[in-house]
Every structure is written in structure tokens, then in C-alpha cells.
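Honest question from a wet-lab person: if I give you the sequences of every part of a complex, can you actually get the arrangement of the whole thing, not just the pieces? Trying it with mine:
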Amino acid sequence: MDKLTVLWQSTALAHFQGGQLIMMAVGLLLLYLAIVKKFEPLLLLPIGFGAILTNIPLAGFSEAGGILYYIYKVGIDTGVFPLLIFMGVGAMTDFGALIANPKMLLLGAAAQFGIFATLFGAILLNLVPGFEFTLTDASAIAIIGGADGPTAIFLASRLAPELLGAIAVAAYSYMALVPIIQPPIMKALTNEDERKIEMAQLRVVSRREKIIFPLAVLLLTILFLPAATPLVGMFCLGNLMKECGVVDRLSHTAQNELINIVTIFLGLAVGSKLSADQFLSVKTLGILALGAVAFSIGTAAGVIMAKIMSRFSQQPINPLVGAAGVSAVPMAARVVNKVGLEANPHNFLLMHAMGPNVAGVLGSAVAAGILLALVG
Amino acid sequence: MDSSVHQLLVEAGTLLLVGMSFVFVFLTILIAAVHGITLFCKRFPEPATPHPSSAVPVVSQQNDAGQPSPQVVAAITAAIHQYRQTK
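Yes, you can. This is the full assembly:
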């Protein structure tokens, strides 16, 4: 009988807690969203699986000695994984559309309003009983409005590691929901005629301009915002490797093998943060709600800025491209293109939207640097 | 409690103003920088590099009469034969 009790005690069945079961269900939900709904599957699949692993009783995946514990320590606690991803994203980014029409940087700046407005909203939420966000918590949550996964994870790991799981899940879920969240806001803020505006074709950008651009961005960041240099520096390194044309092997690795390997580990490490005691709290609901607000405000600010610019600019600007100012590359640009085509079947806005889109990546990296410098 | 929230709100408001202005100033400077790069590249255009492929002599696969050489004909015949065999 004794032996039977020992055997029973060594099964998971005897040790399951309600919270762990709920979190495993959340993990399964993420797997479902990744596999069936194809929501950011590259990240949600390892995150969902990591969530299941970390909640297995007795296995101790996320305690000292467990594999997820070490993956998190090595990759996210140090900030290494999101930065490596950012290098890969840099190696995949083409700044041609932005260099051809640099005014679009203003749209990337305007869309960051979502971040800072949400910061305000997160603090306001403290008036509701049950919420106690500090300024650092609020900053980490607000960066969801930047719609940039690696930036959000990097900032959360610096400012509020205990909220990282919820922040990462919210950031990637909303990025997957861009085609659903953005169009109603874009349509509400523009009229039919504005959506029909066709934009002048972009000029061809020389290779030399594309090589100097990342160096110029880096130089400005070094001078004015050293706190953002980890993000911007790795991004510019990746971009320079792509554009210089002499290290194709490195550029290829950064945008394929390396980013794929890091994505697997990043997903697992984020999943390890989805443990019952950290995730099952009213704070998570607040983070999910604030994330959606951040995203919507960012989109709206971008569109409004584009409307203002089109009023003062000699060249026509379709206000829809402002919505691409929240990064979410390239999904946001595709959404702009789709909404534009609905109004005018001959209007292809994709290349025009890529400008604000990559400007949004720079903008959210700069915003993250500001938050790190002022709050961190 | 209320006074601390009030203080946090003031801080968040300041961050909102400072943050947005800095993002705008930074990216505006970047716009100027991009214009500078464009001007620089227009003033000092890339030197026209000679096309490397033109330097490599093209090995002629034809004889003087404009007909394919016997070796080429033999190779093609063998390839067709082999292809039909495997089919």
C-alpha cells in the first residue's frame, strides 16, 4: 500500500493545480490559434508549447535546473534573443521606399503616440481597484503599441520581467489581428475620396544611399539617444550586411538560419513565463485591454498625421498610408494596400506604405530607448 | 493612494509630451540626414564599373560555317538517346 501511495505521488495527477490546468488550456489555445488560424504561427507555436511544458507539475521546466529556466536566463534575461531577432529583421528590411520619400518618417513618429498615450492609460487604470501598475510596468505595457515583438520583449525584460509573458502574448496576438483591428479605424477617419488618392511613383534609390542610411541612423542614435543603441545598433548591423553586398553569406544567415534558431528559443522562453502564478491575474486582462487601445490609438494617430501632411504637401498623400506607421512589418502595409484597393482598384499603395512601415520600426525603437532612458 | 496616482499621472503626462516631442525631433533630423545623403550621392555619383561579363571571352560553340561542332551534336544526340531510354 505504501508503494502505491509513493507511485501515486510521483504521477502528475496527484499534483495538478487548477491554475496549471488553466494555463495548459491557454497553451493549447495558442497552439490552436497558430496551427488552425495561422496567427503568427512562428512565435505562437513555440510560446504555446512552452506554456504547456512550464506548467507540468514535478517536471520543473522553469525552476533552476530546468531547460526553460536556462533558455530564459541566457536569452531573455540578458536581452540577447530580441536583439538577435532585431538584427535579422534589419537584414530583411529594405529602406528604399523610405529613402525615396523621407517625409514618411513623420508618420512613423506619429504612430508612436499610441505608446505614450497608453502609458497614461495604464496609470489611469490604477484608479480601478485591483490594478497597481508602477511607471516601469506602464512603460513596458505601453510598448505593445509599437507593434513590434522584439522591441516589446526587450523592453519588458528590462523594465518588468514579471509581466513579460502577458506583454509578449498581447503584442504578437495584436500583430496577428492587424487585418481586423486596423481597417475599421482607417475607414472611420477617412472618406471615400481620400482613400482614392493615388500617389506619385517612387524614384529608384541608389545602392550607395542604402549603404549610408543605416550608418547615418546609427550615428544619430549614438549622438542623441545612446539608450536605444542596443536595438538600433543591431538593426543597422543587419541592414548594412544586407545592403553592402560583400557579406551575402552573413546576411543570408542573419535573415534565415540565425533568426529561425533564435525564434524557437525566444518562443519557448516567453512560454516559460506563462506560469499560473504570473499569468492568471487581473493585471493580464488589463495588459490585453491596454494593448488593444495602444494599437488603435497608434493607427489613428498615423492616419490623422497623414491627413495633416496631405493638406500641406504638394505631392498627393493618401491618408491610409499613415496606418502603416505602427510597425507590424509587413502586415500593416498589406492592410493599407488592401483597403486602398477596395476604394480604387487601380491604386497600389504597398510600396508607399512600406516607407511609414519601416519608419515605424525605427520610431518604436527610438520610443523604447526614450522609455529606457527616462524610466528604466 | 489618490495623491500617488495623481503624481504618477503627472509623470506619465510629462513622459507623453517629452517622449512624443523627442521622437518627432529625432525623426525630423533623420529626414534632414536622408536629404543630405541623397544630395551627397547626386554630387558624387558611383563610378561606372566596367561590366565584368564582357571581359570574359565567350567560347564559341559553333564552327566557321555557323553549324554546331560535331562534339556538340554528339553530346546532344547522346543526351536525347539517354532521355528516351529512361522514359
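Two things worth pointing out. Residues 2-43 of chain B form the longest helix (42 residues). The mean pLDDT of chain B is 81.
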